[in-house]
Design brief:
By secondary structure, the chain is α/β, with parallel strands linked by helices. The protein has a single domain, classed as Sugar-phosphate isomerase, RpiB/LacA/LacB (Ribose 5-phosphate Isomerase B, Chain: A). It contains six helices and five strands, in the order βαβαβαβαβαα. α4 links the parallel β4 and β5. The radius of gyration is 14 Å and the shape is globular.
């Protein structure tokens, strides 16, 4: 599976650690940036290409990071076919249900709110959680009708 990753300055170090972690597990990684620290960078510049790549390849997934992950998810969700869910700690059930019920293909992580260990745990769970299908398929199809 191809995993597309992207972040702004807030998640740069974690993105690089995630790339290494997932590469060691055998995933193919495509990095959409940021590639260097710039406190004035703008997350849409990195998130849009990542979300477009995921939306164009139904077999791939995306992991995006930001301070809270909220703005990054908002940017990703503007791309038709991208379904980004935010996780920044608390109930891991939220991330699991994003896959099971919503077929989320992008996980947006709040780098300032979760530890690296928790991040790896959530990523591992999220990548293997299947989509339930049935009634949820109908709902997801409606998202792309606009």
């Amino acid at each position: 599976m191809i995993i597309h990753v992207a972040t702004d300055h807030a998640g740069l170090e974690l993105k690089d650690n995630i790339k290494m972690y997932l590469s060691e597990k055998g995933f193919d990684i495509v990095d959409h940036g940021a590639y260097e620290y710039d406190a004035l960078d703008d997350y849409p510049d990195f998130i849009f290409p990542c979300a477009k790549a995921v939306a164009n390849d139904s077999e791939s997934r995306g992991i995006i990071l930001g301070g809270s992950g909220q703005g990054e998810a908002m940017a990703a969700n503007r791309i038709k076919g991208a379904r980004a869910a935010v996780y920044y700690g608390s109930e891991r059930e939220i991330a699991r249900l994003s896959r099971e019920h919503n077929n989320a293909n992008i996980l947006s992580l709040g780098a300032r709110f979760i530890s690296e260990d928790e991040m790896f745990d959530i990523i591992d769970m999220w990548l293997v959680e299947p989509f339930a299908g049935d009634r949820h398929t109908r709902r997801i199809e409606k998202l792309d009708q606009l």
